[in-house]
Amino acid sequence: MFRFLSIDGPARAALTLTAPVAMGYVPLGMVFGFLFVQAGGAWWLALSSSLFVYAGASQYMMIPLLAANTPIGTIALATLIVNSRHMFYGLSLLKKLPEHAIARWYLVFALTDETYSVVTTMPDGNRNLMVRIAAINQCWWVFGTLAGALIGAQAKIGLRGLDFALVALFCVLAVEQWRVRKSAVPLWSAVIAYGLIYPFSAQNALVLSIAASLLTAIATLKWAPRFNHD
């Protein structure tokens, strides 16, 4: 497993591919670590969360729940609901997962939104590079968390504007997806689905729009050959 993290040519390539993710993960991880400590949690618990939970938005959600002494079962259920969209990610990569058992299960664990966006722009067949990218992305998040927990809680800095780092990151990833796709259907189906669903169900808009986009993709794959044949 650790050979995926060795600093060789593929590792340098993975670092290059994860550089845009680092620009979002490091500051956002620092904000998480800062807020976690400010809420009364120990720095090592913040670090453990980024190592063993690694769920981004769910980690932010966990802060007020822990501060309110919410039962662990409730927190786990909320995390499951928030991260249910990852099921669609995994299904689309079933045939591309590494053969090595540890590498395969780690990639399943570390398949965040940003990692998924990066690995789906890569050519098929480079499975080891996928694992490297996932591991390096988690390292960015863990580094940010540790820095925020140890330093951010003591520093007199403002956090205003750092939340926009995630928006900027997704903008970069969306542009990269646009550049490697021949069809604009995936992008426009996602934009239209979210725009139509959000006014009626803002809290569930992300999950529902992902489901709608998936159905659109299935319909496109099913009907496109017929149109091409005709």
Write structural notes for this entry.
This protein has helices spanning 9-38, 43-52, 57-67, 72-82, 86-92, 101-109, 113-119, 127-152, 164-180, 185-197, 205-229. By secondary structure, it is mainly α. It has 2 domains: 2-180, no CATH class; 181-230, no CATH class. The longest helix has 30 residues, at 9-38. The protein is globular, with a radius of gyration of 19 Å. 23% of the residues are buried. The model is unreliable at 225-230 (pLDDT under 50).
Number of domains: 2
Number of strands: 0
Q: Would you identify the regions where 5 or more consecutive residues have pLDDT less than 50?
A: 225-230
Structural class: mainly alpha
**Please, what is the average pLDDT?**
77
Query: Share of helix among residues?
Result: over 70%
Provide the succession of SSEs.
HHHHHHHHHHH
Number of helices: 11
Radius of gyration of CA atoms, rounded to a whole number: 19 Å
What is the subunit organization of this protein?
A: single chain
Strand content: under 5%
What's the overall geometry?
globular
End-to-end Cα distance: 49 Å
Largest beta sheet, briefly?
none
